[in-house]
Amino acid sequence: MAQIFHPSTNTLSRLSIFGAAFVVAALAWAAGTWSRSSVATGVGVAQQQQVPFSHKHHASGLGIDCRYCHTAVEESSFAGIPPTATCMNCHSQIWVDSPMLEPVRESFRSGDPLEWIRVHDLADFVYFNHSVHVAKGVGCSTCHGQVDEMPLMWKENTLYMEWCLECHRQPEKYVRPRAEVFNMNWETPTDQFELGRHLVEEYDIENLTSCSTCHR
Amino acid sequence: MLSGYMTLSTRATAVALGVLAVAGSGCFEQDMANEGRLKPLEASEFFEDGMTARQPVEGTVARGQLFNDDHLYRGMVDGALAETFPFEVTADVLERGRERYEIFCTPCHDQIGTGNGIVVQRGFRRPSSFHVDALRAAPAGHFYDVMTNGFGTMPSYAAQVPVEDRWAIVAYIRALQLAQNATDADLGPQDLEQLGERR
Q1: Rounded CA gap, A74 and A140, in Å?
Q2: How confident is the model over A12-18, as a mean pLDDT?
Q3: Is the dihedral of CA B26, B32, B33, B37 positive or negative?
Q4: Mean pLDDT of B10-18
Q5: What is the C-alpha radius of gyration for chain B, rounded to an integer number of angstroms?
Q6: What average pLDDT does range A74-85 have in this prediction?
Q7: What pLDDT band is residue B119 in, cutting at 50, 70 and 90?
Q8: Which of A15, A30, B36, B140 has the highest count of CB atoms within 10 angstroms of its CB?
């Protein structure tokens, strides 16, 4: 009976055994790259909404404080999305004929809330609380980026666990004085490490890497 | 035997359903990132009005929410607008008032309360300055009442500013009124020195 494989296929089989390691490595690399790409994470992708609300215009253009609309951020786990009535505080008199704002006026007339598409959607098995972060000196821009420069909202960071842990392991690299939490133009000072260590002590920042801190 | 009476097409359907069930469980039932519970403001498909939580029965009074202190909650004392504050105005209260004033009031009333904030500059009806005689003489309860119930084109801020903060803002408005109408005689030597540097 004739041989099924020609002797030259020996080389092929050796090559494929050797090559398999590279294929596995390449697949792992591809998966890692994909999971960190903006396609998978949504980072840097502007989210279209029913009303093209611009944080850039309202926060940096007009200088309105984050807390004017996100009123619960200091008290609650959820920063709060403002009710239509908050929009109408000003837009009852400003831009009253703008077609762009028609959904806002319609919502105000009918009482049906505007439906915003969530940009920062944390997995449900993670406990997150805005108020404690704000109280311990984590600035808005540390996680959300320069929101006051975003015409449409996008996610500045992945919200992956590895990203959370970067700060939970070394909060002194990121915390700032409480008075600067809502300052969108805060820049990391050159003595951040010294300042951070001092603040970590002053604000009792501790117990950040226990599993049950976030998975409870 | 199952295969004994299953026709080819039913067997194919069964296989397809099995594959779908496995794929489906991967996509839906096993997706722990989106659990069945709803986050704040998420729409409910269960209730007709789409709200996640139910409203309490009308007339329900939750513990600690009787709100029967007229002075604190309505700015009224014996049926008239209160001249006094419902709690002591300390430096901390004033500081809180300044912070809250700058968040919620400056868009229209501006930093010093003359009523020329950025939103007014963009076309909103200009509010009265806090430094006119009528408002300098107005009782503290008047400002609290305006924040709570609105006044003219100004809507109520009750949903955005909690009760104690509203009073703190009233205290800060009083401070602004004092500051804008102060004379040199009202200032200490240190204030005068600082002012001299700027003049």
Answers
A1: 11
A2: 90
A3: positive
A4: 61
A5: 30
A6: 95
A7: very high
A8: B140
